[in-house]
Specification:
The protein is an alpha/beta fold and about 350 residues long. It has 14 helices and 12 strands. It has helices at about 25-30, 45-60, 80-90, 105-120, 130-140, 175-195, 195-205, 205-210, 215-235, 250-260, 265-285, 290-300, 315-320, 350-360; strands at about 1-5, 15-20, 35-40, 65-70, 100-105, 125-130, 145-150, 150-160, 165, 325-330, 330-340, 340-350. The N and C termini lie far apart (about 45 Å). The structure holds nicotinamide-adenine-dinucleotide and zinc ion.
Length: about 350
């Protein structure tokens, strides 16, 4: 088992990464001095595979365990589900000394974190992320929340977990398409911060797709190290540093929006967004063509879509980009690479964006 620490002073916490780590969950929580009552929040899909061992790991360490099951799906990432969690916590009389365990992907993690941030003005929580997206991204960094009918993740809070325990074996039951979509976020880390890691992914695409343990552990660990560093530098996204994690996301979110969140998984849309950002950077003379093409080629190797279908209206994509959360004072800020391993935030007017997106 490997440990990555998120260096946030009194809110610092460990990310534990390895195979067959789940049985250690209870003793690790005990070592942190977490209170006796714990509620596991999960959904039926994940629960069918991992609820029993999670519950046992906690019970064996002496915790009083209850389970709050929510329906599976992004469409349930809303305040109704948060109320379901609150009702469970009130019924079971969880108090300030209690804690929550998020057992699932990013949807469960974001909602459990938000319930923990707000119940009794804040109780501790632990992340047990079960998807690639959750292991390399959403479980680390303390962004929690739910969707509003008019926009994704509009309601939320910063609340850091006390521990993140990743069991890489859990990725083995993930639907193949979810695995690939998560890998798009993995490729993102190489482009924004680490050219050597990008090369490593190129050289190890096959073993990663096969979830070979050594390669998988190295990949998840490196993503967590990179995210932990960015979060430690800019916990609440005030300096702009954390915004680099949005590479590929401005176009990606716009593609998700214009396709009604139905055609693409988030990671797939982000992959398309990265290809778009690379082409835009090349067109502007900021990035060599070979480095733009290398991004597309690596995503393709991982079986991800790399062309925005012609039937998707470019003007609609440009308009949706103007609605993205990353818009500051009328300017649309794109994260663009000047080489693989380094990105910058560049502001554009809405007109400039329309022109750039037209030819994608
Ligand atoms: N907080 C953050 O910083 C952050 C970052 C990135 C994404 N997110 C959020 O994360 C969410 C997406 O997360 P996701 O991609 O993990 O989706 P998800 O949580 O919906 O999980 C995808 C699907 O896989 C199933 N599943 C999960 N683990 C499984 C396993 N081990 N075996 C079999 N099936 C499994 C889930 O039940 C679900 O059906 C979005 O809501 C997004 O906004 C948050
Ligand atoms: Zn993302």
């Amino acid at each position: 088992m490997e440990t990555v620490t998120v260096g946030l002073g009194e809110r610092a916490y460990d990310i534990l990464i390895g195979n067959s780590t789940l049985p250690d969950l209870g003793t690790r929580c005990k070592a942190l001095g977490l209170g006796t009552r714990v509620a596991i929040v999960t959904n039926p899909t994940v629960g069918a595979h991992y609820l029993a061992p999670t519950r046992n790991a906690l019970a064996d360490a002496g915790f009083d365990v209850s389970v709050c099951e929510l329906p599976d799906g992004e469409r349930y990432k809303n305040t109704d589900s948060i109320n379901t969690i609150y009702d469970h916590l009130v019924d079971r009389r969880l108090d300030r000394g209690s804690f929550l365990v998020a057992l699932g992907g990013g949807v469960i993690g974001d909602m459990t974190g938000f319930a923990a941030a707000t119940f009794l003005r804040g109780i501790p929580f632990v992340q047990v992320p079960t998807t690639v997206v959750a292991q390399v991204d959403s479980s680390v960094g303390g962004k929690t929340g739910v969707n509003h009918p008019r926009g994704k993740n509009l309601i939320g809070a910063f609340h850091q977990p006390r521990l993140v325990l990743m069991d890489l074996d859990m990725l083995g039951t993930l639907p193949h398409r979810e695995l690939l979509a998560g890998i798009a976020e993995v490729v993102k880390y190489g482009v924004i911060e680490d050219a050597d890691f990008f090369d490593f992914l190129n050289a190890n695409a096959k073993p990663l797709l096969a979830l070979e343990p050594g390669v998988t552990a190295r990949v998840v660990r490196r993503c967590c190290e990179l995210k932990a560093q960015v979060v430690a530098d800019d916990e609440r996204e005030t300096s702009g540093r954390r915004a680099i994690l949005n590479y590929g996301h401005t176009v990606g979110h716009a593609i998700e929006a214009v396709t009604g969140y139905k055609e693409y998984l988030h990671g797939e849309a982000v992959g398309l967004g990265m290809v778009a950002a690379a082409r835009i950077a090349h067109r502007l003379g900021r990035l060599a063509e070979a480095e733009s093409e290398a991004q597309r080629a690596l995503l393709e190797r991982f079986g991800l879509p790399t062309e925005i279908p012609q039937h998707l209206d470019r003007a609609a994509i440009a308009d949706a980009m103007g609605l993205d959360k990353k818009v500051a004072s009328g300017k649309i800020r794109l994260i663009l690479a000047d080489r693989i391993g380094h990105v910058e935030m560049v502001p554009f007017s809405a007109d400039e964006v329309r022109t750039l997106v037209k030819d994608l």
